[in-house]
Amino acid sequence: MIFAQALDFSSLLNEEIVALIIYPLLYLTYYFASDFPIIKKFRNRFGETKDNFEQSVYFRRSLGFVLLGLIPFFVTLFYFQNPLGDYGLGLPSGEYALWWSLVPLAAVLVVSFALPGNNIDLSYYPEVRKPEWTLKRTAINAAFWAIYLLGYEFALRGMLFYTTLYAYGLWPAIAINSAIYALIHIFKGPKEAFGAFFLGILLCLITYYTNSIWAAFIIHVVMAVANDIKAVNAAKKVNNSAKSQ
What we know:
Layout: H1 2-11, H2 15-32, H3 37-43, H4 55-78, H5 97-114, H6 135-168, H7 170-183, H8 190-210, H9 214-244
């Protein structure tokens, strides 16, 4: 009986179970971090207002990199059995890696920059609430997106996807990953949540066929930066239209 209980307990320490436990906990910590007193006290030093903030966005993305990137990285490095390359940190490889890297990236570039941004939710985008966007601000914003999404992609499409892939197989791993990806977008509304679900399937397939998170990471950064650029342009049109009336 004691031996059986020990076996049951040890099964809770399997890599996929550890990943499925720590990822939601880390994401919840990240999501609600702004409500923590110590974080509020630190952000007050920025002297920003509710409608005019920038440093808080960059700070939040940096915190996301630590919580969603560095901590999963060290868990993977010191607790998991396989080398880091087996969790998506290796360079793209495989028979179809080039196609699964370039074709989706080209499609995302076309869709992101060719389609108008008329349907962008300007109450949320861009996260940096500044009326003037210089080249410097655009570059800094893109850099912090890259920092945040590097951690984000490693935790979700690296640690979590690969541990569930090894334990349950491809489609169960994709289903778990895409469901979690959709759930963490629910607060942005049904359009983003459903979009995240299907995008999650695509990003998992890209990760699987390239044996790497890097293509998914680059695609995610391109989408985030392009979305902000379109949101800035859409906001300018709205403001100009309001002034002309």
